[in-house]
Amino acid sequence: MTDQLKRAISAAKTAQANDGQAEATRIASSSAGDQTFDMSESSYKTSHTAIRKARRFAMQGLYEWLVTDRRFDVDGKLGWKANAPHDIAARTRATNAMHTVHIGYYHEMMRDIPEQIEALDALISQHLDREVDKLDTVEHAILLIGAYELQNRVEIPYKVVLDESMKLNNHFGATDAHKLINAVLDKMAGELRALEVQADTNANLRTSQKAAAKQPEENPVDSIETAAETESTIVDEPTASNKPRISANKANVKRSSASKASANISDFKASKKNANDTKD
Questions:
Q1: Which is nearest to 163 in space by CA: 144, 140, 186, 141?
Q2: 172-178 long-range contacts, Cβ below 8 Å, gap at least 24?
Q3: Which helix (H) or strand (E) holds 246?
Q4: By CB count within 10 A, which of 5, 128, 134, 193 is most buried?
Q5: Please, are residues 101 and 54 in contact by the beta-carbon 8 Å criterion?
Q6: Of 10, 15, 12, whose CA–CA distance to 1 is shortest?
Q7: pLDDT tens-digit readout, 16-29
């Protein structure tokens, strides 16, 4: 083996080792939440289905974080068992097939929502009739995602945020929890997306006005004339007494009541005349 070939093999091995180290560094930084993800990033699945799946995984991850790390932190037991959001995200990616999930948006929610939970809980509590810690954990996680999107993801229409929250509740939540979630997020949308909600209300009003304008105004006189015409049409329709009948030779014969009476009188006169002729 020549020295040139040896040097080429050594260079290829070095390049391969460097690529492996770079990939390991990228994965580590991603799991640690150091990257800034963009929903329009071309390297991720960015369809509506991929984003919806990211919400589902984020809801499950936030639920796990709320019942472990967050609860232990509130109770002063963080050192007893730590379960950081980036550890949950890394474990989820390792144990699930996520090739159809918007990974960037999933990591963003798992990073930003725990960091902003105090502010998000304050927004939620303004529209609750109870304390936030009295909420069901699933409802709390869904409300956190909805509040985060209403406040930080203005490119997502508020109606989409509400609809996706309802879908999350249908998949994970209790039967009647949608009433609370919809009421809270609807009030929050009116506060955080006031211009968008007003524009949508105005658009719906214009649509209803156009629909009402298309309906012709009904004139009472025209209605009476129409009813009279309808009644006359019904009277002129053939009835059982004057419908054409089919004779024995299948010829159509139509007889009125007057013609029937005349025929009977003629028959009576003919029979009487025959009787008189017989007597003579």
A1: 186
A2: 172/56, 172/59, 172/60, 172/63, 172/138, 172/142, 173/136, 173/138, 173/139, 173/142, 174/136, 174/138, 174/139, 177/136, 177/138, 177/139
A3: strand 245-246
A4: 193
A5: yes
A6: 10
A7: 555 555 454 444 44
